[in-house]
Amino acid sequence: MEKRVFSKSFTQQDAIPEAGIARAIELMQTGRLHRYNLAEGDINDVSQLEIEYAKWQEVDYCIACTSGGYAIQLGLRVCGVKPGDKILANAYTLAPVPGAIQNVGGVPVLVDIDENYHIDMADLEAKAAATGARYLLLSHMRGHIADMDQITDICRRYDICLIEDCAHTMGAKWRGKRSGNFGKVAAFSTQTYKHMNSGEGGFLVTNDAEMAARAVVSSGSYMLYGRHGARPADDVFDAVRLYAPNYSGRMDHVRAAMLRAQLPQIDDNLARWNRLYDRLHQHVLEMQGTVIPRRKQEEFYVGSSIQFRAESLSRAVIPDFVSACHARGVELKWFGDETPKAFTSRYDSWKYLGDMPELPNTLHILDKTLDMRVPLTFDIEDCDLICDIIAEELTRFSSFEAAS
Fold it and tell me: Is the predicted pLDDT of residue 295 greater than 90, yes or no?
């Protein structure tokens, strides 16, 4: 019998809404793309986006940036990180996170993860006590939100400043509180594969007026901070404007226009993602030979990707299993590969960080962890076919290994 093949692309996103396309074209026709290049009566798209996003995120201040990675760097800097400062961070993340730590001259203290892809609380507390680190860069990796009650309690007891990387949790919540609203600052991404798409882009959000003022100046406002929307009062800027360096990471009007058109749709899109994710999750949960974390009741997640472990396979055959699925149109990425591939990499491949201590549980969990994007261009029937293909190939490879 001929094997079924999945034919849709795992990298195809929804189109930008027509209003966003029209506004972007209008802006390009004016030639005024820089966020501070405004004629009399012009709409300041970037500032309007900052106001609208701050309202949606339920925070006081928002700074639109060139990327989520830049927003993380900016967040670390405005929180006071200096070269040589130790920064706690979960070891399961993507390369822009350790890159941001390296960029600001921080010293990473990587923390193990648990079987649910969350930062390990016992290891976090032990390393907080042993190192005296005063910063935690918490990556809500792949949308898995750890117990934020425990996180904030540890940060309070050890006087640790919490910086949240919410690249994968825009719209997610813990006990009804939005991801990104637990720490001093939070960074979001609007890169193509995130929850809003401007190609590249991001936000830094905070409720701290001084940090917000520093972030505005350091994002590259020169002395044009008055053209920002969701910003502190002028007297806050008077105290910081001559002391905050300019790192030039501003968003432009074209990207802001695309994002402004998407923001009113985001809640509907989050619900669409979760319908797809829940269907995939249920299928994988029922597969023989897989392990997939159950989501905590306190967590409202956003399922724009899915992760599971192929426990019935040996590590040696996982590359062949991934290739077999790919041949049938299903794109899985393997986080356990010793060699970085595409966006996946293990912490021990970030050689620029220097020698890292071995984190046995992280290596064990990632050893058989597979990752799959869930674009909104898929539907429920696509999810069924994808999981049928994965299950068939998993059974085939498991049977082969058992026989040999």
Answer: no
Structure tokens at 228: 């920002």
Q: Of 219, 211, 220, nearest to 239 (Cα)?
A: 211
Amino acid 401 reads E
Residue 110 forms beta bridges with which residues?
89
Question: Closest Cα partner for 141 from 323, 392, 365, 386?
Answer: 365
Burial degree of 75 (CB within 10 A; 0-12, 13-18, 19+): buried
Identify the DSSP state of 14.
P
Right CATH for 266-403 from 2.30.42.10, 3.40.50.150, 3.90.1150.10, 3.90.45.10: 3.90.1150.10
Q: What tokens appear for 303 in the block?
A: 């399922």
Q: What amino acid occupies position 360?
A: P
pTM given for the model: 0.96
H-type alpha helices, 317-379: 318-327, 360-366
Secondary structure percentages of the chain, helix, strand, coil, to 5: 45, 15, 40
CA gyration radius for the chain?
22
Question: Which CATH class name applies to 18-265?
Answer: alpha beta
For tokens 């986006």, name the residue. Answer: 49
Sheet containing 61-65: give its strands across.
Answer: 61-65, 202-206, 185-189, 161-165, 135-139, 86-90, 107-111
The per-residue pLDDT for range 194-251, each reduced to its tens digit, is: 999 999 999 999 999 999 999 999 999 999 999 998 999 999 999 999 999 999 999 9
User: Tens digit of pLDDT for each residue in 49-68?
Assistant: 999 999 999 999 999 999 99
Q: How far is CA 279 from the centre of its chain?
A: 22
Burial class of residue 190 in the structure, from the number of CB atoms within 10 Å of its CB (0-12 exposed, 13-18 middle, 19+ buried): buried
The number of helices, as runs of H, and strands, as runs of E, in the chain is 13, 14
- Bridge partners, residue 187, by sequence: 165, 204
Tokens, residue 102: 């390296």
Residues 149, 257: Cα–Cα separation, whole Å: 36
Amino acid, res. 13: Q
The tokens 């026989």 sit on which residue? 403
For 139, phi then psi, to 5°, come to -95, 120
Average pLDDT, the chain: 96
Ranges for all domains in the chain classified under CATH 3.90.1150.10: 266-403
